[in-house]
Amino acid sequence: MAETREEETVSAEASGFSDLSDSEFLDLEDTQESSTSHNKPGPSSELPGKDRKLTSLPKWKRGLDVLSPMEQFHLKYLYVTDLSTQNWCEQQMVYGKELPGFLTPEKSSVLDTGASIHLARELEVHDLVTVPITSKEDAWAIKFLNILSMIPTLQSEGRIREFPVFGEVEGVLLVGVIDELHYTARGELELAELKTRRHPVLPPDAQRKKDCFQVSLYKYIFDAMVQGKVTTASLIHHTKLSPEKPLGPSVLRHARQGGFSVKSLGDLMELVFLSLTLSDLPVIDMLKIEYIHQETATLLGTEIVAFEETEVRNKVQHYMAYWMGHREPQGVDVEEAWKCRTCTYADICEWRKSGGLPKSMLEPQAEKAK
Question: What is the reported pTM?
Fold first, then answer.
C-alpha cells in the first residue's frame, strides 16, 4: 500500500456508504414551476426499459403486499437522500425502489459528472485508498475508521469532506454523507453541500426546498451523534451487525496504519462513540448549499438554510409513516404537476391515473359503482 497522509479516507465504494444526491437529475430540462395540467397517462403496467422498449411493472404491487415498505424492499436502513427524494415526490421515490437499475443514459451521464466533481473536491483535502472488504462488518469498520481520522483533522485543519453520519430517527436508522464541514472565520461549524447543475441556472424553489430539507437532516443526525444520542445498541439492532466478529486482514492493516489497535467492529464502535462525545465537537451552526455549473465549474449561487427543528421532525414523521407501513405513498399535489414532465415513471404513475387519490380510497368507490 502506498504511503499516505494522516487524513486519508477510504472511498465510498469501498465502504458501501454512498449518499450522492440525485438532485442533478432535476434540471435535465428547463423545468419551471407552474400549474400545468397532467399529460395523458400511458399504460399502467408498462415502463420504457433501458433499450426504450416497454417492460412489465412487477406484479407484486403495494396493494398485494402485507409487509411494510422497509420489509418489502429488504432494507435495514434508509439514506438521507431517500427522504429528500420523498420531499420532491414520494411516488417517484417508490417507483425507483420497485424498478432498481432503470436509469436513462442521459441521467447516467449527469450522475457520473456530478460524482466526478464531488470526488475531485474530496481529493483536495483527503487522500483516498481502497481497502478490500470481506463482510458487512468490514464495510462499517471503514466508515468508523474514516470518522476516527476525520475528527482530529477537522479540529487541527478546520476542514473535512465526505463525513459519514448515522442515527435512529422515528424508529428507523438513517445514514448519509456530509459533503463538507469547516470552521468559519468566526469559529462556527458550517456544513457546505455541493449541488451540480447541468444548465447554468439556479434550480426552482421546489428543488431548493428539497435540498434544504436534505442538509437539515444531516445537521439533525450529526448533532445527535456529537451529543451522545446515538447508541451502539441501536446501530447493532438495525444493521444486524456482529460486533464480536474479527475484522478482515486488510481492514486490520489499515487500522494499524492509522494508529488504531483494534480486533473487532465492537472495538471500533467503542472508539468512535467515545471520540464523538469527548472530542468537544460542536453542533453544526450554519447550513449552506452551493450550486455549481457542471461544465464550467462556475458558482451559480449559494443558499443559506435556516434550520427549523420542529418542521424537520414533522416531515420526518410523515415520511417514516410510509416506510413503516402506516400509510400509502403519495404523489405531488396538482399545483406541482409540472414535476411529472421530467419524471421517468410518469406514464405508469398510479397517483396521476387516479387524479391524486390513494388506492385505498379508489377501491371502495369502484365497489359502489358496481
Answer: 0.76
